[in-house]
């Protein structure tokens, strides 16, 4: 290594380089400002996540939601084992916050079960649009659980987001069904998992968090799936494996994207998943979202963008000395 003219500068030891890939569920800590690359990665992730959701919608016509979720988590766990290896995988189970890791895992698997269950009732574009209220729910939960302060603009945006959900669901109309609240509950579980992620991020590595997510979900679903097990055919097994592969890859791409750009810049791009789901659903299922779905999705997206900007202002605001 060449040494510049600042010879008097004290050399401090650098952190140990990562020996395993960056986590597939959380942003890596090393940040490089390359927003173009981050945006491209998010756009690519929407194709994988949309394909996973549409495949789950297709499979929900023949298999129970619990079984589809089990296939997804089984594939997720196999990918984790392949990525980290048995030895490293065992090391990542050493958590400083095992209780919170368990709660986070429960929130994630609950979200998966509820969202996949909603696909048997709602068009996939509707369920996807509603699920994007999770950042709004995180804002509400961060006040009692994390002690964070939320400004009036953020609260106004949160209420606007809920209005967008009502536009999609249209309560009181013939299109509304009681089961349509399932994606709302799925978003609530996901929001709880995100809040737990904030709490454990300072104590555990991203690999530890991912390992707990995979194992907790697989154990829970393995205990529940015998209650509804339906012998799958070869095509159904392959579809279930594809769901797990596509969802894991999509989340990994999102994690990589956050290495290159801030959340406030990437959050609006993530709403491209609604458009991606609509295109894939049309190509595979022949489903076309109605105008209410697009209108509600636009309102939800706008509210989330406002909240992301407000969050960025809050974190960048200088503290009083």
From TrEMBL:
<feature type="transmembrane region" description="Helical">
    <location>
        <begin position="266"/>
        <end position="285"/>
    </location>
</feature>
<feature type="transmembrane region" description="Helical">
    <location>
        <begin position="103"/>
        <end position="122"/>
    </location>
</feature>
<protein>
    <submittedName>
        <fullName>DMT family transporter</fullName>
    </submittedName>
</protein>
<feature type="transmembrane region" description="Helical">
    <location>
        <begin position="72"/>
        <end position="91"/>
    </location>
</feature>
<feature type="transmembrane region" description="Helical">
    <location>
        <begin position="154"/>
        <end position="172"/>
    </location>
</feature>
<feature type="transmembrane region" description="Helical">
    <location>
        <begin position="178"/>
        <end position="197"/>
    </location>
</feature>
<feature type="transmembrane region" description="Helical">
    <location>
        <begin position="128"/>
        <end position="147"/>
    </location>
</feature>
<dbReference type="Pfam" id="PF00892">
    <property type="entry name" value="EamA"/>
</dbReference>
<dbReference type="GO" id="GO:0016020">
    <property type="term" value="C:membrane"/>
</dbReference>
<feature type="transmembrane region" description="Helical">
    <location>
        <begin position="291"/>
        <end position="308"/>
    </location>
</feature>
<dbReference type="InterPro" id="IPR037185">
    <property type="entry name" value="EmrE-like"/>
</dbReference>
<feature type="region of interest" description="Disordered">
    <location>
        <begin position="1"/>
        <end position="33"/>
    </location>
</feature>
<keyword id="KW-1133">Transmembrane helix</keyword>
<feature type="transmembrane region" description="Helical">
    <location>
        <begin position="235"/>
        <end position="254"/>
    </location>
</feature>
<keyword id="KW-0472">Membrane</keyword>
<feature type="transmembrane region" description="Helical">
    <location>
        <begin position="209"/>
        <end position="229"/>
    </location>
</feature>
<feature type="domain" description="EamA">
    <location>
        <begin position="178"/>
        <end position="307"/>
    </location>
</feature>
<keyword id="KW-0812">Transmembrane</keyword>
<feature type="domain" description="EamA">
    <location>
        <begin position="37"/>
        <end position="169"/>
    </location>
</feature>
<dbReference type="InterPro" id="IPR000620">
    <property type="entry name" value="EamA_dom"/>
</dbReference>
